[in-house]
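Response to reviewer comment R2.3. The reviewers asked that we include at least one raw input/output pair. We reproduce the pair for histidine kinase here without editing.
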Amino acid sequence: MDEILAEFIAETLETLETLSGEIVAWEADPTDRSRLDAFFRFFHTVKGSCGFLNLPRFERLAHGAEDVLAAVRRGERVADPATVSAVLAVMDRIGALARGIGEDVQIPDSEDDALLDALSISSGGFEIFEPLPESASEPDGAECGTDIAPAPEPLARRSSDGGNRDRAPRTIRLPLALIDQLMNGISDMVLARNDLARKMRDHGVEADLESSFERLSANVADLRDMISKTRMQRVDRLYAAIPRMVRDLTRELGKKAVLSLDGGDVEMDREMVEMVVDPLTHIVRNALDHGIEAPAARLAAGKPEAGALRIVARQSGNQIVIEISDDGRGINRAALVEKAVAAGLCTAVEAATLSDAEKLGLIFHPGLSTAASVTSVSGRGVGMDVVRANIEQIGGVIGITSLPGQGTTITMRVPLTLTIIPGLIVRCGEHFFAMPRGNVVELLHQNSSMVSIEAVGGARIATIRGEHYSLVELEDILGLPRVEGSGPRTLMVIRSSLGQPYVLGVQSVESNEELVIRPASPAITAAGVFAGMTLPDNGQPMLLLDAAGLAQVAELPLREAELRTRSAPAAAMADAREETIQALVFRERDGTTRLLPLAVVDRVEDLEASRITASNGRAFARIEDRLLPALNTQGEESGLPKSLRLHDGRDQICYLIEDVIDIIEVPATLDVPIGAGRIAGLVMVGESQLEMIDPFALFADAARTRQVAAAGQPIRCLIADAQDPWLRNILAPLLIRAGHDVSFGPQAESPDVILCGDSPPDDAAGDVPVLMLRDVAEDAGDTHTSIYRYDREKIMAAIVEAARRAA
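Raw output as returned:
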């Protein structure tokens, strides 16, 4: 019986969550028969189940709501606001009773009679909907009154001809703890696989055993992905309560708003859904209270009487982007500045120098509100600072744009999942720790020309491009010995959940990995500097650092980022030019100072000379087990050449330089376009004219170092004999690395060229070129034209030529 009751509670709460938004949509369109039938079926199902489970309060409330909805179905009552509000109140009470049973909490029944009275009294107020027409009443043969309504649609629905059945997906309920156990189990399996792989590499194994291991490894990876998906939930769940909230709040504020929800089919981790609910709720309430004007004010401003509130969710890489926009009055910058000066956050002189973005950023300061008075909706001192803290606590960021009189858009970017996050592995003495990549703004070496460090009043201050940050060493916070003489230390500019950036010094940053996150023991988390435990691919458990906890333990005397004093050159340039971009100022290896758009710079790093190699006139840098094209090499390299790793969204290249000088704002439009070679043009910087490097030219030069197909299009290569080990294991990878598409026989679709051994395949199409590869270097009277299988240049040239002739 307990299992049946638990199933009833779960189904009831789940259905209520779905119907909460649907009933508001039904109020807007009372002719929507499908929604009305869904509400009626819900109450009827609850009433029937309660009789079996001996839940008389449930039965009494559901019966009352069922009677009202039956009258609406017959056209005897209209779906006016009073009726909808009464039905919503009963739904709320049923939900509270269900949660009370699940949590063993007794809900008083003192208000049940008042709810039933509200249902039974016909609305005497203003009815916004006309009575339902006869055509919308019960169809012929349908049941009326409080008789038994049609049962909910079964999983298998009969088609019109009584034959085939369209089956809906079969589902079961699982405890969340079981899903977590599955995730932990598959993570352990991944670590065991990695450990086995290392041992196999160390001891050497036979080819057939290695093939079996690769198949097992692929299955483990697929299983991990499938289990990860069990934690995913649609954003629809995040949206469920919003229509009801908008309806109730607009009625309370005397406003009108049209809600638009988009992106409900986007999926995100269930924990992320729970973490985003409160910030989203607060932003929506702010939009309705502060943003959207009263109907009279909107009409006076030439706007529609009803405001527009739009919420859109979409996936962008490994992030979920949620945008909340309204067409209201926008944010009053003057009021924000006035409140900031009154609160002592800045002086009137400092406020006068703030940019528009910095003025908007004031809204994120604790206790700063533009509300004129304290109400049930706003003015209580709990504002956007809490929203930002909650979003940044889970590794997300929040941004805001607003146009006076036109509206405001708030954008939240949160990770797709909390269980697997991108992170940096940092070395601290003989120990390794992980830092969420979302908390890291920038990485620099301590000896960089952009960094200066000084001691002020017993504290260390790092100045990076004119910005001042408190500097702490990770070893000092954790009480670990520092290893000296191991090269320049790495400085990490950290953004904590408190919105206070600081610089954390570590011995080095070792790698960048996708990390599986697990809870740490209470004894470890009590230290305040660890957010959990992670299991990287090397199989050695390590602790995950908490950016905010480190700042609190170090007792950093930080100022808010938005109110830091801007450097004079940057401020002057920002005021003088509106359309600007950030550019990296660097010194070339020949001593020339040039610029490069910062948007294409992924990182600045020192490379060991041994990692730079040359082959056939082309240079490559070996980074993270990959070979990246290297530009600006000087033959035999020595020492630690500095490199800019550039990224175009798909490919990466290394551009060797002498040193990095600064990052500045420059005009988006070149002062003197040149477009010659790697130089795009000239830009005025102060009294000097600096050359701007053209990223297009750099990546074009790097592309020439790769084997590419004719006209830049991949060539479809068909390997006729899929069982030939040399063709499959030696030739196929070579073609794939060269950018070609490779498939294996039998022929599935028309290829550009067929590759085979000494004899052509019998089923080759006559119009498809066949390229035969022989075993011996010299052609010993071969009757067919063939190429030596290890003559790379001839093979690649023949493939391109064959594809060109076929085209």
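The chain has a mean pLDDT of 76. The two ends are 73 Å apart (CA to CA). Further pairs are available on request from the corresponding author.
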